[in-house]
Design brief:
single chain; alpha+beta; Spermidine Synthase, Chain: A, domain 2; 1 helix; 16% helix
């Protein structure tokens, strides 16, 4: 399975199952990481999806974000493009 397939599977799974928010009350740099912009060459190490943003009610590709932890427990924030939910399918 290539990286693109894994990324698509994670994105689809995170959109169909609401991600649970972290209940931790402590704030650290690990909980508010800088935004990384996804490209096809981006190495993905996603162990746990923390949250995702909704794409919005527009017809077309829009930026959304996913917060996730890698296999070492480091938190990341990834921005990528997803289709909006406002397209007429009729």
């Amino acid at each position: 399975m290539n990286v693109k397939s894994v990324f698509i599977a994670v994105v689809l799974a995170s959109l169909t199952v609401p991600a649970m928010a972290d209940d931790s009350n402590t704030v650290s740099n690990n909980q508010n990481p800088p935004v990384e912009v996804y490209s096809y060459s981006t190495h993905l190490d996603i162990a746990k999806v923390i949250s995702t943003t909704e794409p919005g009610n527009v017809c077309g590709a829009v930026p959304v974000e996913m917060v996730y932890e890698d296999s070492t427990g480091q938190r990341h924030r990834m921005q990528y493009q997803a289709m909006g939910t406002g397209c007429d399918h009729g």
